[in-house]
Amino acid sequence: MSMSFYVSPEQIMHDKAEYAKKGCSKGKSVIVLQYDGGLLFVAENTQTTLYKVNEIYDKIGFAGVGRYSEFEALRIQGIRMADYQGYIYDRVDVTGKNIANWYSQVLSMHFSNPNEKPFEIELIVAELIDRYNSNIFYISYDGSIMSKKLYAVIGGNNDKFIQHLDTYYEEKMNLSRAVNLAVKIFVGTDNKVNDINYENFEVAILDATCISKRKFKRLNVKDYIK
Amino acid sequence: MLDIGNKFNENSFINLLKKEQFDPFSQYKVISEQYRDKIPVATTVVSIKFKDGVIIAGDRRATMGNIISNEYMNKVYKIDDYSAIGISGVVGICIEFVRLLELEFEHYEKIENSILSLEGKINRVASILRSNLLHALSGLVVMPIFVGYNKQAKKSAIYSFDIAGGKYEEREYHAIGSGSLWAKNTIKNFYKSALNEEKALNLVVQSLYEASENDSATGGPSVTKSIMPSVLVITNKGAKWITDRKIVEVVKKVVSKYYR
């Protein structure tokens, strides 16, 4: 008869967290910040069609870092949930909080299940309220969820980027300034100012000024760089 | 949770609903003849191609037997920037059908990050209609007309359908609903290929007016009650609604031909 060694629950959780953290930190970051016309998503992404930033619903955007296959599966499930909810009730009844909560439940369930490997991802679910306000939900690999205002960062250089945003972020920036700030934060921390490859940036907005009900738009970063 | 058992990537909203035990097209029982008059029905929608695109217009009346159940319902729906749908048939199911269709295309677009092709949309419409066949035979008919503009090919398209899911591309124009006979005849008499937008607008309004003169289930334009047909134009610049103010002008011009 085989016997498994005793490992304390603390140790298991600690190991899992280490494992997940390692996976997440490999991924390049995504910055989400409020500008004077909505919400801006900027991601460093060398893939051309495998997006990190996506549309979930009318005013709800999604960003993921880490293992692509994992956050892609969650993204699709989020869209299904949002569309289903919007169909049985009304479009206004789909909220970012609801979706963020669901993601948080899934991640924490997988994190604490002893037979499964934890997700190696971090997510942002961002819901636009109006031009100057948003609900930004940051969801970690273990399912812990935080609600933020104005800006948030996930992935690799998380702490460094947040520090930069704390110092340089101004309220009511225009779009071009917001894009430039985000790109500068990406480039600055890697110390390679001269050879910026703009192809590597994925930019999208939730545009509070557009009339149509679906506010999500992809942008070309080159149009906004000064 | 993640549906790893799925053999292929599911991107249909309607199939998702079915999986959630909510099949929108199986919940109605076949109804008997005597209750038909209790269900509101929507009628006439016309569509014609013109030089720069396609125009679609519908009257605003819904009837329940000999009773007018609604005097200002909308039968033309914009699906996305380059396609629209007009409906006739049982109002309740029609509205549900349009809602589902819009979501079906949006769902695909969000999941795949690309817009469904015009042909893809048409095939989807046809297969949804086919799934409603039994109800259509028992009187719960949905009869759409689908118009779209293909930006790459710079071509507009009008598609008509039958209840069994047959789909037909129309060459120049088409009309559906109880007033379609008169509307279509009017268009047939005055249609020329490559009309400009102004003339196309005049023609759809005139055809609906003609239909309302002869068919009690088609509502005519009413200046006093400010009820105007809903008209949508799709060109390479996208879909745009024609304002009521503009339509009033056209109606006045059209109606003046009938003064005695």
Give the overall silhouette of chain A: globular
Determine the fraction of residues in helical runs of chain A and give it as a percent range: 25-40%
Distance between the termini of chain B: 70 Å
**Mean pLDDT score of chain B:** 89
Radius of gyration of chain A: 18 Å
- What class, by secondary structure content of chain B? alpha+beta
Poorly predicted ranges of chain A? none
**Structural class determined from secondary elements of chain A:** alpha+beta
Mean pLDDT of chain A: 90
Elements of chain A, N to C (H/E): HEEEEHHEEEEHHEE
How many strands in all of chain A?
Answer: 10
General form of chain B: globular
Protein chain pair with the most extensive contact, residues per chain: A-B, 18 and 17 residues
The portion of residues forming beta strands of chain B comes to 25-35%
Report a brief summary of the structure.
The complex is a heterodimer of chains A (226) and B (260). Chain A is an alpha+beta fold and 226 residues long.
Structural notes for this entry:
- With 226 residues, chain A is an alpha+beta fold.
- Chain A is built from five helices and ten strands.
- Chain A has a five-stranded antiparallel sheet, covered by helices on one side.
- In chain A, strand 5 and strand 6 form a beta hairpin.
- The longest helix of chain A is centred in the middle third of the chain and has 21 residues, at 68-88.
- The mean pLDDT of chain A is 90.
- By secondary structure, chain B is an alpha+beta fold.
- Chain B is built from seven helices and 13 strands.
- Chain B has helices at 13-19, 91-112, 118-131, 133-137, 180-190, 197-214, 244-256; strands at 41-42, 45-50, 53-58, 62-64, 67-70, 76-80, 83-90, 142-150, 155-161, 167-170, 173-176, 230-235, 238-241.
- In chain B, strands 1, 4, 5, 6, 7, 8, 9 and 10 form an eight-stranded antiparallel sheet that branches. Chain B has a five-stranded antiparallel sheet with strand order 11-2-3-12-13, covered by helices on one side.
- In chain B, strand 8 and strand 9 (155-161) form a beta hairpin.
- The mean pLDDT of chain B is 89.
